[in-house]
Amino acid sequence: MTHPAEAATSPTVRHTAVAAYANIVRGTFMLMAAGFMFIICGALIHILDPYLLIFKWKLIFQEGSEIFNLWRTPPVDLYIKIYLFNVTNAEDFMAGRAETMQIEEVGPYVYRELMSHDNITFNDNGTVSTRPHHPLIFQKGMSGNLREDDVFMMPNIALLSIAHVAAKQPYFIRWPINLLIRQTKVQPLERQTAREFMYGYPTTLTTLGYTFLPNWISFDKVGLIDRMYDFDDDFETFYTGETTASVSGLYDTYLGSPDLAQWNGSHCSNIRNASDGTKFKSFIEPDDQLLFFRKSMCRAQILIQNGTDYEVDGLKATKFVFEENALDNGEYDPRNKCYCRKGNCLPRGLIDVTSCYYGFPIALSYPHFLDADPKVRSHVNGSRPDPIAHRSHFMINPISGLPLELSVKFQINMVLDDLSSMAHCEKFSKLVVPALWFEIMMPGLPPTLLSRFLFYLKILPFGDQVVKHSLLAFGGILLLVAITKVSLTLSSAYSSAYRISNELRESLW
Q1: CA triple 371-299-243, angle to 5 deg
Q2: Which of 188, 233, 330, 466 is the most exposed place for a label (fewest CB within 10 A)?
Q3: H or E segment to which residue 16 belongs
Q4: Are 224 and 435 in contact (CB under 8 A)?
């Protein structure tokens, strides 16, 4: 008869026990290996961030790439709203019966801007060369009852510009111009249609201007919007993002240089890394400042953050505004003295952009002289600056640099010198005459583009997080199960050994 102790330790029983234990160990090892594999995969996703790598790759400009096509011809609704200043007491002011001009804002005249980058060439240094194109199409439906043939009393830009330039010339040049002014009885304020004022019309004065002053202008009509949107000879280069993905779509050079020719010193002249509004810097950090450049502004403006907890149409947005005292000429920041043209500093709130407007005596300000020195409004009634209505803002997605909404507002003014030597213009000596103000605005992304970027910027990152955390959680669960199984197996083995030991002890006794 087999002793119990011998039965417990027989080869068959031992073999069966070892096989069972081996199976348990094998299964536990597989669980642990799978758990570690899932955790490693989750950790690699966290460290390598494949979503970020793919997104950076998609930001690079390449022929036929999605972001490049969006930049080349932005499929957005971009508009310019134009507000004219009608002078309601023109006769009394010119006759000397009124000391100040009474102005009345009329608008907006709304135009759609079909922005595009044409004649594109990819360069070997990580840039792309292009010529900008910005045709405007009048939007009757968005302009209310206003029409381009509406007639108002507005500044005669041609006369005042020619008078301003000719006043500095010798008498033998001023004399024929003054003679023509008197003979034609042209006045500094005249009735014009809205379109004539914005786009100009041929006059004898402009013909005389580019005949007697050939180095001044080379066109036969003077219109502020026409000149502002004259991009015929412009060429630019932008970064493709090959070296640094975050700067794709930002300026490298304008007219062949990273510096604007009209300003001295990089503080005022630099446009490198500025945006033309199509795309801003990607992966914006909390303290980052941005640059925004438009030819009509004649300079790059610094944008500062004004809040990060915004959402536009479901996408996260950081709000940017122009820096405080952005139109300072050195009164607050000595570095801004480089905006003083030929050493002549205009009052605070006016930036001399004569060099960008073909020698016309033009200065930019915020609408209705917002934030400007009060003395610039001393000869004008009807200007009502409103910090809410007249400030600019940019809502930008901080990951992609995509503008979700923007509103850029500036006013065009004529800043006139001593015109006492010019016929009919004496009354306008030393005046700042508001001409119009405009708002370049994008109310939001079109539905097709919005849905695409909701997928890229919300759904994909969410999916990335779900996959990462699921891998880590599932791996952790498998490891926990494996550890629990090992613990139970060890506990069972310990119990079995203890029982067999007791049985052996009892049999020996």
Answers
A1: 130
A2: 233
A3: helix 11-48
A4: yes
